[in-house]
Amino acid sequence: MSDRKIPAAALWALGLTQIIGYGTLYYSFSILVPSIALEFAWPEQWVFGALSASLLVGGLFAPTAGRWADRFGAGRVMTFGSLAAAAALVACALAPGRVSFVLALVAMELASAFVLYSAAFVAIVQIGGARAQRSITHLTLIAGFASTLFWPSTAALHEHLTWREVYLVFAGINVAICLPIHAWLARLSRRTDESASPTPAAVAPAGRAFTPRDRSRVFLLMLGGFAIEGFVLSSILVHMVPLTTALGLGSAGLVVTTLFGPSQVASRLINMLFGGRLAQNWLAVVGATLLPLGLVVLLAMTPSLLGAMAFVILFGLGSGLASIVGGTLPLELFGRERYGARLGWVTAARQFSSALAPFALAMAMAGIGVQPSLWLTAAVGMLGILAFSAIILIRRQPLAHDRVMLTSAN
After folding, report:
1. Cβ distance 261 to 148 under 8 Å?
2. What average pLDDT score do residues 128-141 get?
3. What are the residues whose beta carbons fall under 8 Å from the beta carbon of 357, sequence distance 6 or more?
4. Both 310 and 168 in a single domain?
5. pLDDT in tens, 121-130
6. Is residue 172 part of a domain?
7. Of 221, 243, 277, 384, which is most buried, counting CB atoms within 10 Å of its CB?
8. CA distances, 375 to each of 136, 260, 359, 363, 378 (Å)
9. What is the percentage of the chain residues whose pLDDT exceeds 70?
């Protein structure tokens, strides 16, 4: 792999498209749900259920989108994705009924596989070479402001426009801003490939040379760890405000939850400044530890406001790290070869568990109560720590040929 670095302009431009992508395709949804439910005479929980089903379908398609990014280039895939996202948003805006709206929502989630983090991380690796891990951290820091910008801006637009008109505006933004940026990145990626040296050093993977058996074990452990993180994050984030209220914090719980976004961005900033010396596998363990630790602190200190603040901060820090290592850990473990396909499987694992988690926690709270359900969620989160720790242990084992040489020497 070469030592080239992704241009700063390209990184900032890609960050802008991630803010727009997450803002228009994901974060805006919760603001518009009440109006959508009212127009279709549909309970709000069913509208959110339609989103969960769409996330499951999008997760099924994520590995395919990753393979296409490997084969055709992430820039080209993202250019197509911008058009697909705009078309899906228009379809949502024009949907005459519930069925057509759900189908458009599924199309939106399919399009997101081409334009959000998974595709963007592949673009960075294809353009940025050996320094891609640091660039991925920078990108997550920039994109971390998507919710901060799009929750209030969507609400402000919706004061003057219907939810259908808001989606049409968002479609226009994807075409006017994201499409030309992604097309430029596609050309930049092609120029990078053409100028790269064809020597073995330029194309050799950076990942560790696992044995075939260890490679499969590490891959499955990685998917399991990310799936568990996705489950814990999604289950708690969807229910965070009602959870803090149910634990006796009242209206103060809503104020406390506002610490989550800044904590998430802070973890990315801290990692960008000081995390360069820490292997991504260890960073994954730290991120996986912060999530159940936050829940334990919350439960141990309930109904203390200080405990709730510590919980939200720890949870935000863990979430920020999880978004980073989701892109950097597969690169560290396996290198550039088939990076897009592996990242697609990571996305699929996360989306499957994330789609099911809010429903599972709601059922648990209804069945066994809030506090036992949170203790159970914390226990599930600890399995993620074990998964990432097991990868470290496997990596420390000598390779097969090293074992043979050691045996021969003895």
Report:
1. yes
2. 79
3. 230, 231, 232, 233, 234, 235, 238
4. no
5. 999 988 876 5
6. yes
7. 384
8. 33, 20, 17, 14, 5
9. 87
149 within 8 A of 26, measured Cβ to Cβ: no
Rounded Cα–Cα distance for residues 396 and 43 (Å)? 52
Higher pLDDT, 38 or 199: 38
Q: How far apart are the first and last CA of the chain?
A: 36
**CA dist., res. 214 & res. 391, Å (int):** 9
In sequence order, which residues have a C-beta less than 8 Å from that of residue 320 and are 6 or more positions away?
Answer: 140, 144, 263, 264, 265, 266, 267, 268, 271, 287
Decide if 199 is inside a domain.
yes
Specify whether 225 is located in the same domain as 171: no
| Lookup result for tokens 């309930």 | 302
Domain that holds residue 42: 8-203
Backbone angles phi, psi at 377, to 5 degrees: -65, -40
Give the residue from 208, 201, 206 showing the smallest Cα distance to 2: 201
Please enumerate in sequence order all residues whose Cβ is within 8 A of that of 82, keeping only pairs 6 or more positions apart, or say none.
17, 115, 174, 175, 178, 179, 182
Tokens 């000598």, residue located: 398
Buried-state track 170-197, b at ≥16 Cβ within 10 A, e below 16 = bbebbbebbbebbebbbebbeebeeeee
Q: Which residue has the higher pLDDT, 168 or 245?
A: 168
H or E element: which one contains 299?
helix 280-301
CB atoms within 10 A of CB 42: 16
Regarding whether 181 and 229 lie in a shared domain, the answer is no
What are the pLDDT digits (tens) for 73-123?
999 999 999 999 999 999 999 999 999 999 999 999 999 999 998 899 999
Is the model's pLDDT at 193 over the cut of 60? no
SS3 290: helix
Place of tokens 């200080």: 306
Structural domain includes residue 398? yes
Please state, in angstroms and rounded to a whole number, the distance separating the CA atoms of residues 329 and 119.
15
CATH value at residue 328: 1.20.1250.20
